[in-house]
Amino acid sequence: MDFTEAYVENSPEEVTVIETPAGKPSPLNYKEYSAADAQEWASMAASNAAPATPEADPAFSYVALAPTDANPADQNALEHGWGERTAFNYDEDGAKESHDWASNAARYEWKGEYDESAIGPRNEDLEKMLFDSDLIPRAGNRVSDQTPIAAVKEWDDAGLHPIMRENVRLCLYDKPTAIQSFALPAVSCGKDLIGIAHTGSGKTGAFLIPILSDLMGKAKRLAAARPNLAEEFIPSVHGVTAEPLVLIVCPTRELATQIFDETRRLCYRSMLRPCVAYGGAPVRLQREELMKGCDILIGSPGRIIDFMGQPNVLSLRRVRYTVIDEADELLHFDWEEDFKKIMSGGDMNEDEDHRYMMFSATFDKECRRLARTYMMKDYIRVRVGRPGSSHLMVSQRVFEVPDSGKKTRLYETIMSHMPTRTLVFVNSKTQVDFVDDYLYNQGLPCTSIHSDRTQREREDAIRAFRTAECPILVATGISARGLDIVNVMHVINYDLPKAHHGGITEYIHRIGRTARIGNEGIATSFYNDRDEDIAPALVKILLETKQDIPECLQQFRPEEDAVTFDDDTDQEDDDDDKKNGDGDKVAFSGDESKTADSDDNRQSRWTREDTKKEEVQPEW
Ligand SMILES: Nc1ncnc2c1ncn2[C@@H]1O[C@H](COP(=O)(O)OP(=O)(O)OP(=O)(O)O)[C@@H](O)[C@H]1O
């Protein structure tokens, strides 16, 4: 098919012509549409207007030169600017030999002959691969409005190791975000930490940057001996037991590989060697990477536990930092056993020099209570905004749609927006397949992901969505947490999460896939009376963020719109501390940070002695 030019009409006076190479619109084109029109979409969404159709609203009209041999559905999709569909043959494609597993991605390899006191030499090819891609999310222009911060305001004031300072620059991170500005000094003062901040606010950097920076000067002294990878590596001859200094645990495979990617960037030109361990991908390849030496291990619980149980593969005796990302999810009883095994199992370092950190955007009271049982008594809690609040940059709109009308409404909703990365959430795996098939048959370039897919299919789906080969991804809640993909402008809750299955917490994480790091985005939800269980909580979130309440939700409005949240205060936690006679605080302040303090409930970690530590004042 030949598809050479597309035209976007922004207004009757202004017509932007976007050149597209023969084939489908490139990711760059998608980016151009979204950046220019996000604001208009947002204000349209804020008014809770019914989705505009191209005919009804000239601001959204979009014309593309469509191929003549397309079937009517394809023709329609192409005319609206969506690229061609890509068929995935699960049998054939799944049987292909070669596959770029995320765990084998290139990372900076320190060579024995490098001067240990210096920064490793540049590797321009790797640098290009790690830092120079349109597919890396970049901060939107609203980021500074959203993050008025105290604490460490500039990277130059953060006391970063020169390699880390340079890597932060290469990542194009101009300034620390709010959570980073507080986490940096918190980590340096050597305490355990709970960090709570909105989705897409840079929590990964908030733990990676200070931890890796701290280790960069000490890698030689702290890290285990490892083979010189400048020479031939034969696993059975040169392989070593992996003895990471940092262990990062997260609930999903996709999140593990994503954190691994950010770690590869931030470890560039340093001695620190990251590895990732996650289920579904070949054990042998991951084990061989570990045998080359591993300073930072990122993984999902199952595979980490597997490796812990294998002889001479993984030892946790050197671990200095354990980070639990999406901690409230991993503290949930579904994960309890795995979580305990990791936290207390094997030969885990239980000395005083081992810091524990937990991060999430949502942290209800029960989770906070549980989290404290793993923390030292003088841990620090940094909170940016209310735990579980949704991001103000997401324009949320809710439409009443009966189950029988959802399919058609989904198609109309997608077609009424300019082509951009769109994430559609449904509640079951069979529904994912059904909605994916339906959209595909409507000529739309979509793909899908759920937990019954093989890991290869899951990685392919995420890759196709990330590169915008398939800019529409249909998913279950498995993709609700952590996924950080450039320019996801629209999240559609085809099904709202059920109160007993993720509930409003999952809603917050789902809509947080858009409007990340100072960008804007839209969340559209289909509601009907089967969703009444989540309605009161949903209304509170809409009121809190000053969104319109549609007719179907009016009955759930609290009296005088008074919005209170069970877990929006740390007062009770502080009261517990007082009862226990504790309460040393390290207070942080910042416009968005209502409280951030250190407290404890006098409980020790699983197998650690709880020893009184000296209060260390942060240096800033
Ligand atoms: N200081 C910074 N300046 C600009 N961009 C940043 C900065 N720190 C992180 N980012 C980018 O912001 C994006 C979101 O970060 P991250 O995924 O860590 O968010 P998060 O708070 O963990 O979100 P979630 O709660 O959804 O997991 C990433 O693409 C990351 O590269």
TrEMBL record:
UniProt-listed Enzyme Commission number(s): 3.6.4.13
Record field: compositional bias (Acidic residues): 561-576
Catalytic activities: ATP + H2O = ADP + phosphate + H(+)
One MF term in the entry's GO annotations: ATP binding
Enzyme class: hydrolase
Motif Q motif, chain ranges: 153-181
Keywords noted in UniProt: ATP-binding, Helicase, Hydrolase, Nucleotide-binding
Protein name: RNA helicase
